[in-house]
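A student in our group prepared the protein record below, which I am reviewing. Here is the record exactly as it was handed to me.
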Amino acid sequence: MSGSLRFACTGCGKCCTGHHVPLTLDETRRWAAAGGQVIVLIEAFVTDGPGMPVEQREHVLRRSHAVRCGGGEARVSVTFAAFNPGRCRYLSEGDLCTIYESRPLVCRIYPVEINPHIPLRPQNKDCPPEAWQQGPELIHGALPVDRALLALVEASRQADREDIAAKVAVCECLGMTTSALKGNGFTAWLPEMKAFAAALEQVPDLAGASWALHVEQPELMSELQVLGLETTAQAPAYYAFIGF
């Protein structure tokens, strides 16, 4: 985006309601240890093939991991997120964050986008209009103005890259090995938290499990099968398929 954008939080609490908050591996451990539920979101793509957004090639490759899929290879991106179908468990009745000093990176970065290919658009956020009419300059051109904020964004991106192998290993350990195709949807899993927390505390080695891609369009399924990839269109029993 061009120009500049100002922002000041109004304390409305909307960004803390009805949003699953992406967590780093360490943040996931803390969330699970405190009794919170985690949702696991998975999407996959083929290198320079189906599901890969060409304009985001470097970004998606760096935050994904290669897995065996039938007789071929896919790359999966895994997000561990705080499960917040309603109000965040740490949001007070007065709409204040009760863990403000130790809140997750994504909360510290909000409303800036972490994906460098997604522009910050106020209309895509829940904040009221007045939030964008006051406060210091947040964005100039396409980059945050504040150096500390820039550092947080890079820390989040780096955690995505460093954590991905461990996240895939945890998924394989717990049998969460069905993904959707990037751009077509994602699979959403709600793991049993005792087993999930145990896998987080002692991350297992990658099992080399075979993955499958949940695809419901016959033409897309055929395209993936030609590449030797395993696909499924069966109604899921242990996950939800969220199609786009």
About this structure: The chain has a mean pLDDT of 95.
